């Protein structure tokens, strides 16, 4: 059992990073900030003779070294224009390359963390659905979402306790790895 937190925020010490840290306090895990990696846009090569793969950036390294061995993966994203950040979107787009090469997605447990300033509990259903349907398609197990309203970079750090939906998610992760 190994746990991977993927931070899709460009702020390495921001709310999403802090939420991941607090959610996983005391639970052994690895964190990767997508902003530290070069990720090229997905190229759809289906109508060409080119391979459905791009080895010129960090994507394959991330997948092979961190994603493949993980049983439980927490995807964290701030809300950007009512969607996920470009970092997470591009990373997920690239899953198509891995899917095309029989990457072992099936059975991995996926959790979603969302941080936004404007009523993210009601305005981020699009993000949740995108992740949930992608998990369904790749036969991964979507295990739920933790959502926090926060804007300033220390808002999550300043919370006394995490909201119940995040506590429930933490409990789920703990139970899954026991
Ligand atoms: C480019 C940009 C777009 C944003 N768009 C939204 C939005 O559509 N809805 C929202 O609730 N918050 C929006 N926000 C606010 C961020 O979601 C919020 O500040 C969040 O706490 C940032 O998380 P971070 O500290 O992990 O980067 C936006 C912030 C930026 C920089």
Top keywords for this entry?
178 residues, alpha/beta, Rossmann fold, five-stranded parallel beta sheet, 6 helices, 5 strands, binds flavin mononucleotide
Structure, described:
By secondary structure, the protein is α/β, with parallel strands linked by helices. It has a single domain (3-177), classed as Flavodoxin domain (Rossmann fold). It contains 6 helices and 5 strands. The chain has a 5-stranded parallel β-sheet, sandwiched between helices. The model has no long low-confidence stretch (mean pLDDT 97). The structure holds flavin mononucleotide (FMN). The site of flavin mononucleotide (FMN) has 18 residues, from helix 1 and strand 4.
Poorly predicted tracts of residues: none
Reported for the largest beta sheet, the result is: 5 strands, parallel
Strand order of the largest sheet: 2-1-3-4-5
Instruction: Name the beta content range.
Output: 15-25%
Strands, total number: 5
Strand-pairing-aware structural class: alpha/beta
**Remind me, CATH topology?**
Rossmann fold
CATH hierarchy class name? Alpha Beta
What's the SSE pattern? EHEHEHEHHEH
Number of domains: 1
Count of separate DSSP helical elements = 6
Radius of gyration: 16 Å
């Amino acid at each position: 059992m190994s746990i991977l937190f993927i931070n899709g925020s460009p702020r390495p010490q921001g709310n999403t990073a802090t939420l991941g840290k607090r959610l996983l306090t005391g639970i052994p895990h690895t964190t990767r900030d997508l902003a530290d990696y070069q990720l090229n846009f997905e190229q759809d090569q289906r109508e060409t003779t080119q391979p459905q793969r791009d080895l010129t950036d960090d994507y394959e390294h991330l997948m092979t070294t961190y994603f493949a061995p993980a049983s439980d993966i927490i995807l964290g994203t701030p809300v950007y224009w009512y969607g996920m950040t470009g970092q997470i979107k591009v990373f997920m787009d690239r899953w198509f390359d891995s899917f095309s090469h029989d990457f072992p997605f099936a059975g991995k447990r996926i959790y979603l963390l969302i941080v936004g300033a404007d009523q993210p509990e009601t305005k981020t259903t699009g993000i949740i659905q995108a992740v949930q349907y992608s998990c369904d398609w790749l036969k991964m197990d979507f295990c739920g979402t933790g959502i926090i309203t926060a804007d300033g970079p220390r808002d999550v750090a300043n919370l006394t306790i995490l909201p119940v939906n995040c506590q429930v998610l933490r409990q789920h992760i703990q139970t899954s790895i026991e």
